[in-house]
């Protein structure tokens, strides 16, 4: 399967740390998958101006193409001002409305406060649903206290990241099998 991991902010390190851990877990136990990691901190993205995503160039085209061709997407993001970062919203604005059709998406959110644990439910899931994604119901919420010196120190968080990876891969595999069975019903 084609897996894309997106660290959805241009600032901070906690989201990138969590996404890199998730990437290492996926690649260590699931060798047959193609895994791409995109960190918005390292990309030079265009601001969405309504063009078709294929009309962009450089990092913008590479990211949007990878997202539209992925089978599984993991989106990690920090919570700023009780919402998703504007840079992540720009990524969604660059894509067509059906960009996430037939894709399974897992979510990781980092925050400085436990008060924002519902932001993925109220801010991100509605956007992903509108874009036709199959969203994993559970997500991993990581607080400031779960990090120390650039690493995740809470074993429960590590367990939940592992479980998110495993369950998302499992759901995607079953979903792909169902799609193949439906396609096999037709002779053309």
Automatic annotation (TrEMBL):
This is FMN-dependent NADPH-azoreductase. InterPro entries: Flavoprotein-like_sf, FMN_Rdtase-like_dom, NAD(P)H-dep_FMN_reductase. It comes from Staphylococcus edaphicus. Residues 1-143 form the NADPH-dependent FMN reductase-like domain. GO terms for molecular function: oxidoreductase activity. SUPFAM superfamilies: Flavoproteins. Keywords: Flavoprotein, FMN, Oxidoreductase. Pfam families: FMN_red (PF03358). Homotetramer.
